[in-house]
Write a structure and sequence with these properties.
alpha/beta; eight-stranded mixed sheet; five-stranded antiparallel sheet; 16 strands; binds S-adenosyl-L-homocysteine
Length: about 325
């Protein structure tokens, strides 16, 4: 047993089975805090690690948004879950010739993993960067440019299952030998379901977007969120674990495999109270609207273009939030 599993086992033996959200928080916390998981030798590859073009298109989007906001200076440029810092480095490189932009930005990263903060420090060594582990700690009072790629999918969910005419919550227990899923009566009433339905809620995800929307409303700004998921709310078990680029059992390799779930963009749009919501649109359409095809020709990167716009083109969704619905954001026409 690894240290994360031992801790989990002790917790369960002392206090009983835990909900899926608590389980994910512990497993993901351990996972990201103890490794750099990206790339061929790691567990999975993300869009910014596939090609610089991804960050370049997002850099163009952010600079264009900034100009449409009236080029405020100073402006907060924040990213949540920056991984290796590749996306931010590409954004900064792509925007260095935008007049006034680099002089205006104050770069803030939201990250919980000490290992990845080190990587980010290396990737961004030419810039002034501040780190925090939560959205609430970002400075207040400045307009905001915000980006997150594959961050929301890593925030914990809770799962409910409809069975024998009632809703139960899925829990993680320990049977003396191994970790097992179990069910307990749902702690609060839920709308009707059909036998076998799994219903997921993501209070932390919604809380994050709610907080983000509140800031954008108060400070003005634009946020771009990219993740995999579905545009409409619906039943389904989307909890998944990935290790060495393969799906693995969620309860094996706890804390040693990446654990995520699909983002429910309908719930997120609802959580984004009193701000304009753009999209979701497919990542493929967004990147094409930003001009990735021409860039791919110049760089001679047809394979990366195909991965970003076709293979990942539909499952990955792009959403933007803005304080002002009259601003026509690039990429969402
Ligand atoms: N955006 C990067 C990395 C995605 S992986 C890319 O596209 O390559 C998820 C990132 O979110 C990692 O940096 C991880 O350490 C961070 N993360 C996950 N949960 C977090 C949390 N609760 N608070 C802060 N950072 C978190």
């Amino acid at each position: 047993m690894n240290p994360c599993e031992t801790r989990l086992k002790d917790m369960i033996l002392q206090n009983g089975p835990i909900d899926v959200g608590t389980f994910m928080t512990l497993a993901i916390g351990h996972y990201y805090s103890t490794r750099d998981p990206f790339g061929v030798k790691g567990d999975f590859t993300t869009a910014p690690e596939i090609s610089q073009m991804f960050g370049e298109m997002i850099g163009a989007f952010l600079a264009d948004s900034w100009i449409k906001m009236g080029s405020p200076s100073p402006v907060l440029l924040a990213e949540a879950g920056p991984g290796r810092g590749t996306l931010m480095a590409d954004i900064l490189r792509a925007t260095k010739n935008v007049p006034g932009f680099h002089a205006a930005i104050r770069i803030h990263l939201i990250e919980m993993s000490p290992v990845l903060i080190d990587r980010q420090r290396g990737a961004l060594k030419d810039y002034d960067v501040a780190w925090t582990d939560r959205l609430e700690n970002l400075p207040e009072g400045l307009p905001l440019l915000f980006v997150a790629n594959e961050f929301l999918d890593a925030l914990p969910i809770r799962q409910f299952q409809f069975q024998d005419g009632a809703w139960f919550e899925r829990l993680v227990g320990f049977d003396g030998e191994k970790f097992v899923f179990g069910l307990a009566p749902a702690p609060y009433p839920l709308p009707g379901g059909r036998a076998g339905d799994v219903f997921e809620i993501a209070p932390q995800r919604e809380g994050f977007v709610k907080g983000l929307a509140a800031r954008i409303r108060a400070q003005g700004g634009v946020a771009l969120l990219v993740d995999y998921g579905h545009d409409r709310h619906g039943p389904g078990d989307t909890l998944q674990a990935v290790k060495d680029h393969q799906y693995v059992d969620v309860l094996s390799h706890i804390g040693e495999a990446d654990l995520t779930s699909h983002v429910d963009f309908e719930s997120l749009a609802r959580a984004a109270e009193n701000v304009a919501v753009y999209g979701p649109v497919g990542q493929g359409n967004f990147l094409k609207a930003m001009g990735i095809e021409l860039r791919a020709q110049r760089l001679n990167q047809p394979v990366a273009l195909e991965r970003l716009t076709v293979q990942m083109g539909q499952l990955f969704r792009v959403v933007a939030l803005c304080h002002d619905e009259k601003i026509q954001l690039a990429g969402f026409e």
